[in-house]
Amino acid sequence: MAILPLLQAAAETASNNRGYGLIGAGLAAGLSAIGAGIGIGRIGGSMTESMARQPEAAGRIQTAALILAALIEGVALFGAVIGFQIQGKIAF
């Protein structure tokens, strides 16, 4: 019901010269967020598994996992910012 007008607007935008750039900007922002989610999820799963195997090293494992998660989040933020900058240069 509400998806049809959205798809029509996307098709209309893609038909002009700026449409591909806007689609690329959206893909850049979206894929960087998806990649960060997958990466942080894998870090969390591996951290939990390694802490269950070696409880005495839980503090070091947790510290390293938090640092890695922050670095991944920073890279995802850069990807989203680049995507939005592309969108701003191409926008009307």
UniProtKB/TrEMBL annotation:
Compartments, record wording: Cell membrane
GO cellular component: plasma membrane; proton-transporting ATP synthase complex; proton-transporting two-sector ATPase complex, proton-transporting domain
Residues the UniProt record annotates as site (Reversibly protonated during proton transport): E73
GO terms for MF: lipid binding; proton-transporting ATP synthase activity, rotational mechanism
V-ATPase proteolipid subunit C-like domain: residues covered: 23-84
CDD domains: ATP-synt_Fo_c
Main location: membrane
Positions of transmembrane segments: 20-43, 64-86
One protein family per Pfam: ATP-synt_C
Coiled coil regions in record: none
Topology in membrane: Multi-pass membrane protein
Listed Gene3D superfamilies: F1F0 ATP synthase subunit C
Sorted UniProt keywords: ATP synthesis, Cell membrane, CF(0), Hydrogen ion transport, Ion transport, Lipid-binding, Membrane, Transmembrane, Transmembrane helix, Transport
UniProt family annotation: Belongs to the ATPase C chain family.
Record function comment: Key component of the F(0) channel; it plays a direct role in translocation across the membrane. A homomeric c-ring of between 10-14 subunits forms the central stalk rotor element with the F(1) delta and epsilon subunits.
Name of the featured protein: ATP synthase subunit c
Biological source species: Gemmatirosa kalamazoonensis
